[in-house]
What does this fold into?
Amino acid sequence: MATTADIRNGMCIDIDGQYFVIIEFLHVKPGKGAAFVRTKMRNVTTGRVLDKTFNAGVKLDEVRIERRPFQYLYQDDMGYNFMNTETFEQIPIPGEQIEGIQFLKEGDIIEVQMHAESGQILTAEMPTHVILEVTYTEPGLRGDTATNTLKPATVETGGEVRVPLFIETGEKIKIDTRTGTYVERAK
It folds into this structure.
């Protein structure tokens, strides 16, 4: 059990059976009345952000969450199968729990947040940037560089991303998995 005095960024708490991560907080001591803590929290399963105010001294259920690296192996009817890189245990994770899944290829390492006691998977995060090969894109027109024009391109995982006109089929590009946008040519 923790109190409002123990609140810190990144702390995970249990409210009515749902897990929330504290994004930011502020201890407020008004000139008149009791002190309170204003927080901004993200629901771990849905990703929704919630503003909540706690009175000073309220007890909170702190949840211990562990972050572990998992390697992507293959996909089947159970979901996406991953292997814990430390224990070699294999687990399926539904695609809905992984952001940027269209840029996931075999062998990629993702960060999985797990409830420490029950082992329940809360979220799975792709690396912020991945390097993938362009498998198909229309050829760009020569001299059409006056504007910042983008064209669609398909990458090796089957995902689609918009790239500048100078990118050709077979080139490797760096993609931001959070937004699904082109960053730069891979070096």
Remarks:
- The chain has three domains: 2-62, 65-125, 129-185.
